[in-house]
Amino acid sequence: MKFAVLALVLIGSLFAEERPVVVRGHVFAWPFLEAKEMKPRGGSTQGAEVTLDQARSDHWKKLQEEVSKKEKDRRAIVAMAGDYRVSFDFLETLGFSENYTPPKPYFSWGTESVEVLHDSPDFVSLQHTLVMYFKDKDGKEMGPMVMKHWRQDWRFEDGDLHVYVGDQTWERRLVKATPGFWTQAVYQVDDSPRYEAMGRWKHEGGMSVWQSDDCWRPLPRREFSVRDDYNILAGRHEITITGTGWVHVQNNQKLRLDEGGNKKYVGQELGVNRYERISAPSLSKASETLKKTGDYWAEVREMWAEVYQKNERFSLKSKVDDKKLYQHHFAYAAEIEQEGYDPEAGRKHARETILKFLGGGAGSPGKY
After folding, report:
1. Would you list the DSSP string of 311-348?
2. Domain that holds residue 190
3. Would residue 30 count as lying in a domain?
4. What is the dihedral of CA 151, 268, 177, 183, to 10 degrees?
5. What angle do CA 211, 193, 180 make, to 5 degrees?
6. N or C: which end of the chain has fewer CB within 10 A?
7. 79: Cβ–Cβ under 8 A, 6 or more apart, which residues?
8. What is the pTM of this model?
């Protein structure tokens, strides 16, 4: 009887404390914040409608075949090629400052073609190209605008790495190659280095996933224009191949590295970049542009290969002649598209342009 009375008292107290439910709108990872306060920042232009291709790709079908582990790895990498609607979604999940308030999430999307530049058993290179169609305020479609985007190079059991150490500086690291591992080297739109990471592909139950070790990289464009409280993005990457595309998940830490090499973590974020294969609109302009300018970009890559071989450490200047590196390269590539390519002049321009931006690597290397 006493327990029954106690239960009634407890139930009564619970109902007495009941509060009206406030509908805020749910924000992933921040359920108690007002949704309007977490409205994403990012692209503001309106893109054209896309048609998603829901059929399982030929790359996916080949990936399911019984082949060697190394060959399955290579097929997973090649499966990233195709035409996609790409979305970029980032949310800061925690911060370390006093009275921390999360910044607005970031979201943007675009249409992008990924083409295979090289495919061999130990090396695969993939070039990303943005092909963007826009709608004006009246709904009229314009485009496409074609822009060379980032590049990713994959090497099997690679022990010669070039890692970011802060202050726009990269160092060569010779390590013992880990059996079965692939390195993914990511390059900026102008083919200058961004980051390089080691990782292993895992294929199980129809799922193919690559998970990287920790790596450092410079601030992305979405951040360096709005943040100055940190200078290194550190974290791990996970790439998963699906039947209709692939997903790139990032777990990043925002790190402040001072001149003495001391670290201070500012925050942490989760990023999900989703590549969904499309059948429309056509992104064929990417291949057309690459055919016209590809010889020049090959010279740019060749010059960077020399830089890596001849320098244990180097840094990059932010601007030369009041222009960033990509502006010099893009302006020259635009001329080639219109006037044709002169191999000797192209090689000279590629080499001289990169040399102008190279520094000796002054500044603290930090600790990776």
Report:
1. -SEEEE-S-BTTB-HHHHHHHHHHHHHHH---HHHHHH
2. 35-281
3. no
4. -20
5. 30
6. N
7. 57, 59, 60, 62, 63, 208, 241, 246
8. 0.90
Q: Quick one: which of 361, 303, 310, 367 has its CA closest to 168?
A: 361
User: Is residue 149 situated within a structural domain?
Assistant: yes
Q: Contact, 150 vs 125, CB < 8 A? A: no
Report yes or no on 147 lying in a domain: yes
What does the CA dihedral 313, 319, 320, 326 come to, rounded to 10 degrees? 90
What tokens appear for 217 in the block? 């990289």
Cα–Cα distance for residue pair 60/337, rounded to 1 Å: 34
Which secondary structure element, helix H or strand E, spans residue 303, and what is its range? helix 285-310
Is the CB of residue 185 less than 8 Å from the CB of residue 153?
yes
- The rounded distance, in Å, linking the Cα atoms of 239 and 97 is 31
- The C-alpha torsion from 24 through 30 and 35 to 40, rounded to 10°, is -170
Whether 130 and 146 have beta carbons less than 8 Å apart is answered as: yes
Per-residue model confidence as pLDDT tens digits over 192-250: 999 999 999 999 999 999 999 999 999 999 998 899 999 999 999 999 999 999 999 99
Segment 1-53, tens digit of pLDDT: 444 444 444 344 444 444 455 556 789 999 999 999 999 999 777 888 999 99
